[in-house]
Amino acid sequence: MAMPTLKIAHMEPELPVIQGGMGVGISLNNLASAVSNAGGIGIISGTGISPEQLREEIRLARKKSEGNGYIGVNCLYAMTDFADTMKAALDEGVDFIISGAGISRDMYQWGKAHDTPVLSIVSSAKLAKMSQRLGAAAVVVEGHEAGGHLGTDRSVKDILPEVAEAVTIPVIAAGGVMSGEDIREMISLGASGVQMGTRFVATEECDAADAFKEQYVKAEETSMMMSVVGLPGRAIENPFTSQIADGGKVKIDRCVSCLKKCSHQYCIYDALLKAKDGDMERGLIFSGAGVAKIKEILKVSDVMERLQTEYEQATVMA
After folding, report:
1. CA–CA distance, 275 with 284 (Å, rounded to integer)
2. What is the mean pLDDT of residues 235-240?
3. In the sheet where 222-226 sits, what is the strand order?
4. Number of C-beta neighbours around residue 205 at 10 A
5. How many of the other CB atoms lie within 10 Å of CB of 212?
6. Banded model confidence at residue 257, pLDDT cuts 50, 70, 90
7. Stretch 152-173: mean pLDDT, rounded?
8. Among candidate residues 15, 81, 30, 35, the one with its CA nearest the CA of residue 60
9. What does the angle CA 67 – CA 71 – CA 77 come to, to the nearest 5 degrees?
10. How far apart are CA 139 and CA 145, in angstroms?
């Protein structure tokens, strides 16, 4: 049995799979266009790059996808350049905006003015209902299994049914989704589709350094750490996570004031950038809880084909 159809505003991809928007520099034009070309929905992360760089990434993604498929941009509300990032993406005519780490009434109004759907990342039925009321075209329900910043300590499997019952817009499940079997389970719990980040890091087309991707193949588990934005985060254990454990500080050489709120315990921008460039000792390696299931680096098209096969097999076995 084929996967169900996902429809969000004008978007109706071949597969109900959205690639997670991962900053700093993990999901740029190369990964987003590859996912789009393979039948999913690609996302460029606007976090950690300038509005001018974002414009160029969008144009490159459009060129690589030859105008087919769907490309969106992730704008992190916690960033000081949130408004400029979102407006740059809207000016470039992206298919949609997705935002996390906070909700802004303005972002829905900006999207409406450009006739561009806006999606919200939420962690509760209450936030999902608020997002729908403000104008969200869909919500991404992210549980504690997700990589990066987390807004809850609950599993997506527990939150998802509550959200699906609370809203009438499409509900996308995120956090620990690694296989076609996982997709089938999320659909059975009320999801219209899924968002996957970690699985797409370990692909040839991912924009990160090879050393970063290899960490996902080698990793056996993840651990929780505290982000400078005041939220817990999930990452692969390494010397950096050990250094910041229990409030340990890392010297900040230069602060670029990238966050609206920051504890200044360490520079998260610098740590994420180091990891993206291949420094596995001093970098912060955000990752979802299911990373141990990744055994090899594949092409995006191969990942998508496997997801379909696994989904069909899981359906037959049910």
Report:
1. 6
2. 94
3. 148-149, 232-236, 222-226
4. 22
5. 24
6. confident
7. 97
8. 30
9. 150
10. 17
pTM tops 0.70? yes
**Phi-psi bin for 101: left (phi > 0), alpha (psi -120 to 50), beta?**
left
Across the range 132-147, mean pLDDT stands at 96
CATH topology of domain 17-207+298-317: TIM Barrel (3.20.20)
CA distance 101 to 78: 6
Q: How far apart are CA 85 and CA 153, in angstroms?
A: 29
Parallel, antiparallel or unpaired: strands 232-236 and 222-226: antiparallel
CB 274 within 8 A of CB 48: no
Whether the pLDDT of residue 67 is over 70: the answer is no
* Residues present in the chain in total: 318
Contact 178, 290 (CB under 8 A): yes
In angstroms, rounded to a whole number, what is the distance separating the alpha carbons of residues 260 and 80? 5
Q: Which helix (H) or strand (E) holds 51?
A: helix 51-64
Burial of 63 by CB count in 10 Å (0-12 exposed, 13-18 middle, 19+ buried)? exposed
Q: How does 221-256 read in b/e, with b if 16+ C-beta sit within 10 Å?
A: ebeebebbbeeebbbbbbebbeebeeeeebeeeeee
Residue 303, SS3 per DSSP: helix
pLDDT at 215 over 70: yes
Tokens linked to 193: 């589709």
* Predicted confidence band of residue 208 (pLDDT cuts 50, 70, 90): very high
pLDDT mean across residues, the chain: 93
Domain positions in the chain: 17-207+298-317, 210-276
Place of tokens 């089938």: 184
At 162, phi and psi to the nearest 5?
A: -65, -45
- 196: enclosing H helix or E strand: strand 193-196
Give the pLDDT confidence score for residue 230 in this predicted structure. 84
The structure tokens 């939420």 sit at: 122
